[in-house]
């Protein structure tokens, strides 16, 4: 992978790349030769990970800015920034505590804003770059017990459309919206029986592997996606086509 604008090794930032989808995405970009930085509050679960870990809490705008500007100064710029860090909690809407909702929005929505602002300023000034994020099919369809999560992902999709209009033609934005993906997040919330029941509802009859989400990010960051901005790429095994969503 070579950045077309500069003809140099691309620099890719990914939040939440110590686990799951982010980890697989970091691996995908690293294997193509990119220089990849993992901005996560925790060190990588897999010590052999190919990205350079920088401790970063995406809810802290000053910390995100300092880490992003530090990498840009060291590397001479940023080509792609992927806001992927996120959490989800299964809870009934009528029982949700305001502090829990606020915490989720801080990570899932403000976390995207914080990365996109810091990296977006650098890209806009440089004249090129791509801002990506992990949304969810839940941003487009209702799903019970995750209403705060779903609202956060709908917010990410709205952000993606509006930021695309402000930053074009210099900077592109896009989201990948996964359906069910077999990651630590998913395993922590679903029993084996629940996973099997979910698989029955997915037209492709299985969860996605994290590498399949990573492939979508790799496409959106590439020159092959040069005329795509403000859009989501749904990777859900056909679920949303039937009008349902995952978590
Ligand atoms: P995961 O729990 O495996 O990984 C999430 C990572 O985010 C972890 O490494 C964690 O340390 C990091 N993180 C959490 N809060 C952070 C913070 N404040 N600052 C920095 N890092 C933080 O989860 P995953 O399943 O890989 O999810 C990744 C993204 O994909 C999330 O945005 C999630 O909402 C989205 N998603 C997941 C699924 C799924 O089925 N797993 C489906 C749709 C969307």
From TrEMBL:
Domain of life, per the record?
A: Bacteria
Q: Is this entry keyworded Zinc? A: no
Give the signal peptide range.
Answer: none
Keyword terms, alphabetized: Oxidoreductase
Instruction: Fetch the PROSITE patterns from UniProt.
Output: ADH_SHORT (PS00061)
Q: Which InterPro entries match?
A: NAD(P)-bd_dom_sf (IPR036291), Sc_DH/Rdtase_CS (IPR020904), SDR_fam (IPR002347)
UniProt record similarity statement = Belongs to the short-chain dehydrogenases/reductases (SDR) family.
UniProt name for this protein: NAD(P)-dependent dehydrogenase (Short-subunit alcohol dehydrogenase family)
* Natural source organism: Paeniglutamicibacter psychrophenolicus
């Amino acid at each position: 992978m070579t950045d077309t604008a500069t003809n140099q090794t691309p620099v890719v930032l990914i939040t939440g790349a110590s686990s799951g989808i982010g980890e697989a995405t970091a691996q995908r970009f690293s294997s193509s030769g990119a220089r990849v930085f993992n901005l996560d509050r925790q060190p990588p679960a897999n010590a052999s990970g190919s990205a350079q870990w920088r401790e970063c809490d995406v809810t802290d705008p000053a910390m995100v800015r300092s880490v992003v500007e530090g990498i840009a100064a060291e590397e001479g710029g940023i080509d792609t920034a992927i806001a992927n860090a996120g959490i989800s909690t299964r809870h009934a809407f009528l029982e949700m505590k305001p502090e829990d909702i606020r915490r989720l929005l801080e990570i899932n929505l403000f976390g995207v804003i914080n990365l996109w602002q810091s990296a977006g300023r650098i890209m806009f000034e440089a004249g090129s770059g791509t801002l990506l994020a992990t949304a969810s099919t839940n941003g487009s369809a209702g799903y019970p017990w995750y209403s705060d999560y779903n609202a956060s992902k709908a917010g990410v999709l709205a952000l993606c459309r509006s930021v695309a209009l402000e930053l074009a033609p210099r900077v592109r934005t896009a989201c990948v919206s996964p359906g069910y993906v077999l990651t630590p997040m998913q395993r922590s919330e679903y029993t084996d029986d629940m996973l099997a029941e979910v698989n029955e509802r997915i037209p492709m009859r299985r969860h996605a592997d994290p590498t399949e989400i990573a492939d979508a990010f790799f496409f959106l960051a590439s020159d092959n996606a040069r005329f795509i901005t403000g859009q989501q790429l749904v990777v859900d095994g056909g679920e949303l086509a039937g009008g349902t969503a995952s978590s």
